[in-house]
Predict the 3D structure of the following.
Amino acid sequence: MHAEDPGLDLPPYSLDVQAIELGADTKAVGLELIETESREPLRGSEAAEIWAAAFRVLPGNDPSVVDFFSHLERIREFCRSLEVLRQLLGRFEAETFGLRAGAAAKIEDAELESDLSRRGLDAYQAAYPRYTFCAVCDLSDAWVTLLSETLWPSEIIRRVRPAVQPFDVYMARPQ
């Protein structure tokens, strides 16, 4: 039951998608995966499955790249033994990582990769216009901040809703 409307049964999980203000020159959308009733961040294997479903469809037909910044040897070892995105996200849920998608992801981006090694995910702020999107993923807090010139909350919802529907996720644009 939802506290605001006792007659309305909502799914157990919600993915809130909303434009966020990061400055006049930065276009960003925040995604937050929460337990609907408690409004607490959703973590664990169920969250990893939902995020994996969303990350598979979010780039559309664009190639994508995942950027990790710590425990690189552990991540390389893991990637040699498993190829499933859900397992990767579940295993490294506590790590902050980046995701970038677009035609630019098909080729090496030495400038961005150098900047990522110096500045971490802050490097995406200057690079995101070259991509469909760059995303800062903090799944331990159930947040993704997506930087994009072309993807707005309504388009993100349109892309992601069918992928997360099997998990009984309510998608919303909070006011």
